[in-house]
Amino acid sequence: MLTSLKLPISTMLLLRTSGVGGLQECVLKSATLSTSPACPPFTPLNFEATPIVRVAIEPIHPSEMPKLVRGMRLLNQADPCAEVLIQETGEHVLVTAGEVHLQRCLDDLRERFAKIEISVSKPIIPFRETVVRPPKVDMVNEELGKQHKVAIIHQVKEEASQGRLSDNLHVDSSGLVTLDTPNRLSTVSVRAIPLPHEVTCLLESSSELIRTLEQVNMSLREGKSLDVSLRTLEAIAGLKTQLESLLQGRKWRNTVEHIWAFGPRRYGPNILLNSVEGYQRPSVWHCLSRGDKVIEAGAQAAQLRDFDNSIISGFQLATLAGPMCEEPLMGVCFSVERWDIQSSGQSQNQDSGEKASISPEDIAHHKVERRSDTSQAEGTAAGPGHARRRPEANAADCYGPVSGQLIAAMKEACRHAFQAQPQRLMAAMYTCEIMATAEVLGRMYGVLGKREGRVLHEEMKEGTDMFIIKAVLPVAESFGFADEIRKRTSGLASPQLVFSHWEVNSLTDNNKLQLQQH
């Protein structure tokens, strides 16, 4: 409340404003207070500005860490647009909408909420990694299809000669990556395909709905009864219909029905596609069937089902941190086109090339066995054949569990499939609206051009000499932009920055090399 005078009251008249205290432990950002549980909640405020700029914060004196944690919690409650995160590394991260908002939050944290001295890192600008379609012709109208395939082959040979590729990795000219687990018991083949821009935008805007879909599917897999409202099911069905309308063409035929998972974190703008021949698994949309459809899986599908989550986990790890600069992936579809499991006996004879299913009992033989003296005596009496199998099992044990090997293999296969396609970084972009007079338009355009901004359109405000310019500006180039444009225009131009979208940044080979070296 703005006033310092606070009086306790028992009743409140209509059309008056009052304050309710003691809710800081119950309400995070917004809530609806009611005497009846049946009261529908009020819709929270929807802010156009999206938090995008983040910094890591720590106290100057380590003993004041509890005060910092309490202050950041209060800041999170007081500012509806700010976000407070704790990363896996233990860092306390503050996410804000921009430079001015960041400075305001830091001042409030120092002076009002935590009231301690804090150390703030440099602003961290997020990027995204993606793949694009290879160009058909170059700048001089020469065909590039065969050149791209030859370049992939030469790249794989060069990495293999330098020892950066293992012997169980194979990449063909079309970008299909085949990788074996270290114990040679499982093989996966993955291909990376760029998603259409409309599909990526739809998945990004429907992240909350996809998260709800994953929670419903998880409850169904665990056999728990979950009451899902009809409105939620209709929203999920609408998302499926939209994806089917956007994924048209021969290449995307029946793609929506074969979606394995979304990522990263199971609700991101990337898709894992089940293209394994003969492997029928429940679709991510099976909650819409309400038990009407029963998928009849064969024996091979039942065997692969045991390690189904390992494939998903490897996909989640690969999309969480890409190979270019360890940033999350965006707009990539990973298609699993092959997934084989062979028995331990056939793993020694690769020339035969025959595949067989492996049972859970066979896999259990590859785990570390701790035998007592009695079991050792029984093993000796069992004959020389059993004694010969024990070194073989010990050799497989050094690679760890099969599930862990499959997770690592799937992750590496996705990363190499990503690198087999043309890679690009996606930069976060601001929408910039500037009001300026006619005499300072030239200087304003100069500041935008220096910071890699791009003017979309401009129009004159009727009845005045003011122009309204709409442009896009990279978030990485926005620090100090407002101060510079005011100085260059003598205060006659005032910008307003709002996070808008992610945009592909075309990189040259030199820039890629610098990123890899960095």
TrEMBL record:
Keywords: GTP-binding, Nucleotide-binding, Signal. This is Elongation factor EFG domain-containing protein. GO terms for molecular function: GTP binding; GTPase activity; ribosome binding. GO terms for cellular component: cytosol; ribonucleoprotein complex. CDD domains: aeEF2_snRNP_like_IV (cd01681), eEF2_snRNP_like_C (cd04096), EF2_snRNP_III (cd16261). SMART domains: EFG_C. PANTHER family: ELONGATION FACTOR-LIKE GTPASE 1 (PTHR42908:SF3), TRANSLATION ELONGATION FACTOR-RELATED (PTHR42908). GO terms for biological process: cytosolic ribosome assembly. Residues 362-373 have a biased composition (Basic and acidic residues).
